[in-house]
Amino acid sequence: MASTRTSTFVLPGDRLDPASLPSHPTLPLKLGPGLRHIPPNTITPTVAGQLCTDKRKNAVWVEFNGGRYIPTTGDLVIATIQNSAVDIFYASVSDYAPKATLPQLSFEGATKKTRPQLSFGALVYARVTHANKHMDPELECVSQSTGKSEGLGPLTGGMVFDISLGMARRLMLPKPVEQGALVILDELGGQGVAFEIAVGRNGKVWVNSNSVKGTIAIGRAIQETDEKALKIEEQRKLAKKVAREI
Amino acid sequence: MPREVEPSVNERQFFEKALAENLRLDGRAFDQFRDLELSFGDEFGVADVRLGKTRIHTNISAEVTTPYPDKPFDGLFTITTELSPMTSPHYETSRPSDPEILLSRILEKNLRRSQALDTESLCLIAGHKVWSVRADVHILSHDGNLIDASCISVLAALQHFRKPDTSSEGENVTVYTLEERDPVPLSLLHFPYCVTFSFYPSTVEEGETVILLDSTLLEEQLREGSATIGINKDGELCQIAKLGGISVDAVAFLGCVQVALARVKEISTFVIKRLAEDAKKRDKGDLMAELRAENDR
Amino acid sequence: MPLDTSTYSLALLRLDGRRWNELRRLTAQISTQVAADGSSYLEMGNTKVMCTVAGPSEAKGAGGVRLGNDRADIRVSISIAGFSGVDRKKSGRNDKRLMEMQHTIASAFAQNLFTKLYPHSTISLSIHVLSQDGSLLAACINACTIALIDAGVPMHDYICACTAGSTSSYSSNDETADPLLDLNTMEEQELPFLTVATMGESDSVSVLIMETKVQVGRLEGMLAVGVDGCKQVRAILDGVARARGTKMLEGSRM
Amino acid sequence: MVASKEPSVLLSHLHRADGSATFSQNGYTVIGAVNGPIEVPRRHELPEEAVIEVLVRPAAGVGGTRERHLESILHSTLRQIILVHNFPRHLIQVTLQITNTPENKNTGSKVVQAGSHLAILPALLQTAVLALLSASMPLATILTSVSIAIHADGKSRKLITHPSLKEFESASSVHIMAFTSHGEPLVVESQGTFTLEDWEEVFETVKALCHAEHNRIDDNAMQGVDGKGNMLEFVKSAMGEKVAQDLHWHT
Amino acid sequence: MAAWVERKQSLVYGSDDWLPRKLVLVRAGGTCPAPFQRPTKKQKASVAATASSSTRALNFTLHITSHHGIKSQSPSPMASTTPQSALSFPRETFAKLSPHPYLRAHLQPTSATATPTRANGRSPSQFRTPHINNGSLTHADGSAVVRIGDTTVVCGIRGEILLTSKVPGWRADKAAAEPSSGAGYNEIKELDLLVPNIELATGCSPAFMPVIPPSTLAQDLSTKIYSLLHSTNLLDREDLRIWYQPPDLSDPDRMDDDSEDDEETSASEIKAFWALYIDILFISLDGNPFDAAWAAVMSALKNVRLPKAYWDPDREMILCDDSVDKSKKLSLNGLPVAITALVFKAKEQAQSKDKKYWILVDPDTFEESLCDESVTVVVDCSEKKTRILSITKSGGTIVGREEMKDIVKLAEQRSTELSSILNG
Questions:
Q1: Cβ count near B29 (within 10 Å)
Q2: Which residues form the Exoribonuclease phosphorolytic domain (chain B) (predicted)?
């Protein structure tokens, strides 16, 4: 991966060197987060971060951590139910932001008669289906194509922990160990600690295990890895410590 | 404004379960405080307190004004606490919220009514000129237990503050600048700190109460009652505020008072230590400045 | 002008002639206003308050409806009549002391009433202070309790309140100091005192507010006297409520 | 104590705010917090762009007309650099808490300083921008701000960059300017007595301090350039450090 | 509003009168979206897309007919093809519907001979005519009414006496130190002897309802006036001092009848100050409040006559002399004049890179609502060489060195115009 990706530090409004952008003969250039296109042909960053390019996919984006979660189509999030109307729930994806809508029928196997009863404060693991600056975001807890939940739906029991958006992204990487230098979960698993986990891109991680103590320890280990920017070795050490405690 | 975010059902239930197992989410014991940090500003009367992720900044200032006609011998001492959107977006600047009122009331009772600051010593000319001392408490970050942290912050800042020296001749008062005369400390009579207890109904034993000290924001949102005890290290109670909430056995409550007294002794020692460290640093700084000045000559 | 407590040690009588553990005359009436869902009038010595209850009713008004609220919201408003004190003083709407009292009463009853029985609704308590002579908060709490009984809102137990003080001034660690029950304004101004409210006949403290300086050793005695006083108050209020209940039953029998 | 002209900053240190920065320079310390985009009350919302709310809070006392004036300058400035059209019907809150101001020998005991409220403007602007960057708020460009005092007596004339409060108050004219990273002037606040030539000289000086021509993305080696006093370089290095720390895992 | 750009050539002026009286909006092809409103951004994008790609384009054509409203007078080629569906709006409606294109259409005339004119009929660099009336208020020590276009301001100044014994931190030795000695003690500033206050909530404009707390704009303006009064060193502090010379007992003839040389004798002391309360009331507001308010303050300050005040040692108070002869005018340091200009950009969006812009001086409310960037320059041309006293700008990036030069030049012109009225 490293061979196809390069990264440089950018600030908003920097003029990007055209040579630094990937140029693919056939694929259109994909602009990722943190960049904007000013017609006719200026591309400038809008946030401070590392400019990353992927030559193979002909994509360019800015990698950054921090700030508030802004819903993006396709993201998996942990949302809190706030209210319900006739056939939709209103759920909070990020604090103080406008509520997202979650149709009551977009749960696995939900019909008019058998839809889930979710009360105020219930947690759901959901996917963002619509995100648009002019409209409130929309969520679903079922895959439109298969009709299966695919792991989405209400989260019962367990505990949620707040993490940074960057950490959420690392946890969701296809290969967190190689791409994100993140081994804490693998190590915990390797130590024989059993737990369930759901990661929301909105900076929340839900953890459940068979003991309260275990859940707290795992949640705090993830938070510590995030806050203290633990290296791989330190994560291993932490995982061992946590496993011993449990 | 958007309203305050409330904890989810899962958090509520999990917290309850954890309490039943004698666990807190951040791994502390029930009576354990978070790490307390105290630093002072370059200027006199600036104190910055951190209690875990809670952070309070207090700034003391003083000016000469006329006293209230009904209290001609007393200087003025005001404490302002305003929760700004910096703390959380749901705080509006124009309308005081409930926690803000309770916080300012407790500080008021604890520090002003108990005469921690000797207001009579602020009088320059009776009925005409008095010092008006003002404590601006800025809450920078709120992760629970604002009251205890604010109280430490204000008392530390008051101890750190120096007001300009004055002299009076008849009706004339001369306020000296910092260059002319070294400023003088305030006259503080005692140091009442606050300790806040959070109460939760026990799920293990009916009628029993679980008591937590130095609660975080989540713990505060989930608590069913609380009590703040203001006491100085000499065992003088300055105020007690158990404003409703679940009821607590009187004997258990008397136990809380003893815990508070022990804790306040610790806090007092800590603040005094930090003040001494700061004074030492300042002395060194002054010495350096003098040496530099001599070199310049 | 310190209150002359020297005579106390001789005769063991307070300035108004009471003994140390004596309550002032406490009278209460129930269902004083027909229009309200519940109402009461209570006198503790010369402190006189009126309380009316509206609700539980549907929560209405902007800002009042809180999403996902599974229990009744309790709102308290206290208004102090201009003629109630010695000097006429109009307290502002943003008086922090009043707001604190309102918060205290609301928060105490939120735990005592079965609010979960009334989701999405509001119970409003409105208190009018007609005359003040010490123990104001205690009188307000007591008035609320019987007004809520009148309104028929289910509750765990009575919340009864009274004040307790100590004859020692705060600075002296006087071992001979005696605790006092149910203070009037003069005593409140001179002596350290606290307001305590307990649940029913238990020793369980719902409200405890102290705003004056006192040696920590004195607290236990004051609290014991206060809690005992609350039990006396409860007995009186219980009598009032029962008398009213009996009357109602008689009425229904006819 | 002698206030340092060198700026310093602490980023993302308040845990509940979306972005935060503590910036100190010249004896001024300002803590900034940014929240947003969040919900905005209906009556305030704008259909096409985000509402920006700026709040300046003094270290001592309550905010008055001077704070409102500073807020209005900040508001119109931040609106130009935040991509407000990205968040219609949302609110972006910028709270700036002043925690330290240089000691004023004359008004040492005064709560509200009578004048010179403009002296703090560069610190406020800089804090706001750093807090916005910390919040990863989409920006069109960043801005940097510098104050300059001109001391002139008859013939001789002296320009002082980042003047201390004393130099600020005794100057014949003071100039506070802010430029975008493209070298465009965004804010100008000049006061005192001066000529157009004076002003133009200040303009060019500040422009050079706020903007380095060679500031290209590919030019990381700052060879032969005196980065001292260049605010853009300061912001760049501070943010670069933060990003590197945030993305330590990123290869 | 991409359609506007394409159809701008159909903006035609009436032959005899350059001033557009009526605008006719002609829709070519398609149906008009009803109800008619400003298209949202999304709609705009789609309008632009259809306009460029399809023949059934939604084109808005703009006609300006003379006030006789003869539509056939100058039919544009585009409009004449579908004249049956012409929608015509009066000028005011058009201005309200799409204010930005409306103003731009005025500033960007199609014919080469026509000069850019603002919607209010002025050229971009043309100021409104000022009218000033002095001393119309009897109870104020100085007053002025300034009218610039439809913006009218009343300024009244009253002097009140501030006893030094009432000043909390007053020190006699401080006053002796002249401000020239470094960062000196400026008593006018330190003691707040100038107190400007702006009242906008008079019903002067629909934006400010009466009887509400001061709006942000009012606070903003007060601060600007306040800091300008101080930074310009407009007032001589000696004018505001009230001295007392204790009678020299050795020379009984010489009582305090002549205070000319009092300052030299060491025994004299300042007993009190004049504090000037400067109240500025907006009667009507149609843009450019600052320039008008400042002109009013200047004019009122020139009008001030402070009575002679003296310390009466027997009664221990300050007394004022009734006689007008003994009252004194203030000696003002120069005659600063403020001008404000706005930058109107061709593109509505704030972040567009379009370099097309106009600088409009002395803007009215309509123009203020359409512009972000504003520049205020204060100059004093009372002496030979122009002194610039303040330059402030915010809200945009257009005005740089060159543009500022032009604005300063305009300010100098305006200054001569206003000075003659102020001095007259």
A1: 11
A2: 32-164, 191-262
Instruction: Quote the tokens at residue B141.
Output: 């970050």
Binary contact (D137, A67; C-beta < 8 A):
yes
Residue scoring higher pLDDT (E26 or B183): B183
First to last CA, chain C: 60
Name the residue among D35, D105, D110 with its Cβ closest to that of B85: D35
Answer yes or no: is B292 within a domain.
Answer: no
Query: What are E36-92's pLDDT values in tens digits?
Result: 334 444 444 333 333 333 333 333 344 443 333 333 333 333 433 444 445 677 777
What tokens does D68 get?
A: 């409102």
Phi, psi of A165 (to 5 degrees): -60, -35
| Domain range for E15 | 9-56
Q: How far apart are the C-alpha atoms of C162 and C141, rounded to whole Å?
A: 9
Q: Do chains B and C meet with 3 or more Cβ pairs nearer than 8 Å?
A: yes
What CA–CA distance (Å, rounded) separates E185 from E189?
Answer: 9
Instruction: Say if A3-63 and A76-156 have the same CATH topology.
Output: yes
Helices (H), C152-215: 185-190
Residues from A contacting E (CB-CB < 8 Å) are 38, 42, 134
Q: Per CATH, is A3-63 categorized as 2.40.50.100? A: yes
Q: How far apart are CA E281 and CA E198, in angstroms?
A: 6
What mean pLDDT is predicted for residues C34-54?
Answer: 93
Is there a domain that residue B224 lies in?
yes
Q: Do C208 and B227 touch (CB under 8 A)?
A: yes
Domain boundaries A160-245, CATH class: alpha beta
B49 is a domain residue: yes
Please, do chains C and D touch (3+ CB pairs < 8 Å)?
no
Query: Does residue E146 lie within any of the structural domains?
Result: no
- The tens-digit pLDDT sequence of chain D (251 residues) is 456 778 999 998 898 899 999 999 988 999 999 998 999 888 888 888 999 999 999 988 887 888 889 999 999 999 999 999 999 999 999 999 999 888 654 444 443 444 567 889 999 999 999 999 999 999 999 999 999 999 887 778 889 988 888 888 888 899 999 999 888 899 999 998 999 999 999 999 998 888 765 443 334 433 333 445 688 889 999 999 999 888 888 76
Do B242 and C205 make contact, defined as CB atoms within 8 angstroms?
A: yes
Give B171: exposed, middle or buried? Use CB within 10 Å, 0-12, 13-18, 19+.
exposed
> What would be the CATH architecture of the domain defined by A76-156?
Beta Barrel (2.40)
Chain D CB contacts of A19 under 8 Å are 218
E39 touches chain D (CB under 8 A): no
Q: Domains in chain E: how many in total?
A: 2
B65 within domain boundaries = yes
Q: B65 CB near a chain E CB, below 8 Å?
A: yes
Q: Which residues of E touch B65 (CB under 8 A)?
A: 168
Domain boundaries of chain A, sorted by first residue: 3-63, 76-156, 160-245
CATH number at residue B164: 3.30.230.70
pLDDT of residue B43 exceeding 70: yes
Q: Is residue E381 part of a domain?
A: yes
Contact C67 A83 (CB under 8 A): yes
Residue D79 contacts E, CB cutoff 8 Å: yes
Residue where a domain terminates, one of E41, E56, E71? E56
Q: Which architecture characterizes domain C22-253 according to CATH?
A: 2-Layer Sandwich (3.30)
Q: Quick check: B114 contacting C, CB < 8 Å?
A: yes
Coil, helix or strand for B218?
helix
Q: Is A121 on the interface with C (CB under 8 A)?
A: yes
Q: What is the pLDDT of residues E369-388, one digit of tens each?
A: 999 999 999 999 888 888 99
Using CB atoms, list chains with 3+ pairs below 8 Å to chain C. Answer: A, B
Angle at C196 between CA C194 and CA C199, to 5 degrees: 175
Q: How far is CA A55 from CA A1, A50, E92, in A?
A: 10, 16, 56
